[in-house]
Write a structure and sequence with these properties.
Distance between the termini: 35 Å
Strand content: 15-25%
Helix content: 25-40%
Number of helices: 8
Largest sheet: 4 strands, antiparallel
Shape: globular
Length: 230
């Protein structure tokens, strides 16, 4: 940990942590400071002026990043019959029904995303206690409960991400890897930012986007001017 700490401290000296930067500047700085021995994930955090205690101010959704996430995600599909065959043909990593539920009950979590056809949700719902805390429960709002399993799988494989405002009104989401160009990261960032901007609840008061910070897995956060966010 000492080595990581030293690298972090050196990175902090390369820019003014109290200042605000244009999006491209900020992403360029984050890339420059992503010096770990692995391809660090670049993440953005939006602090929003919402009160998630109210149902009409909760924000949740999904979108496909134009340049993907840089990570290949494995997909588990709960489906039967023709839909199971369709899921297999579309590239699902795992397809099943009762057999997959039994494996998960035994502690198996060898997948990143779960998709289910609507008719399977009565069965999948029993896994809520284990899938829910891990953020893996299929949901119609994020397109993971759908009869169109082909589309769902292809979007996930193409770089679909889910976003959700936490209790404090903060959305954390990945926008790529340190190996991406700054322009690729910027395009992903803007796509996410525009989606969040459009999701502004009518009940939200005052400034909606309060702060934005981008960072890499091991690097310091760089602040983007929320008034020039996109």
């Amino acid at each position: 940990m000492a080595k990581v700490g030293k690298r972090y401290q050196e990175a902090v000296k390369t820019f003014d942590r109290t200042g605000y930067f244009e999006p491209l500047e900020a992403l360029t700085l984050v890339k420059a400071n992503a010096k770990a021995k692995f391809d660090e994930t670049i993440e953005v955090a939006f602090k929003l002026g919402i009160d998630t205690r109210h149902a009409d101010q909760q924000i949740r959704g999904a979108l496909v990043l134009p340049n993907g996430t840089g990570k290949t995600r494995s997909v588990l599909v709960f489906a039967k019959g023709d839909k199971a065959k369709e899921a297999e043909a579309a590239g699902a990593d795992f397809v099943g029904a009762e057999d997959m539920i039994a494996k998960i009950d035994q502690g198996w979590f060898g997948f990143d995303v779960v998709v289910a056809t609507p008719d399977m949700m009565g069965m999948v719902g029993r896994l809520g206690r284990v899938l829910g805390p891990k953020g893996l429960m299929p949901n119609p709002k994020t397109g993971t409960v759908t009869p169109d399993v082909t589309r769902a799988i292809k979007e996930i494989k193409a770089g679909k991400i889910e976003y959700r405002a936490e209790k404090a009104g903060i959305i954390h989401a990945p926008i790529g890897k340190a190996s991406f160009s700054a322009e690729q990261l910027l395009e992903n960032y803007r796509t996410l930012g525009e989606t969040i901007a459009k999701a502004k609840p009518a009940a939200a008061k005052g400034q909606y986007i309060r702060s934005i910070t981008v960072s890499s897995t091991m690097g310091p956060g760089v602040r983007i001017n929320p008034l020039k966010a996109l």
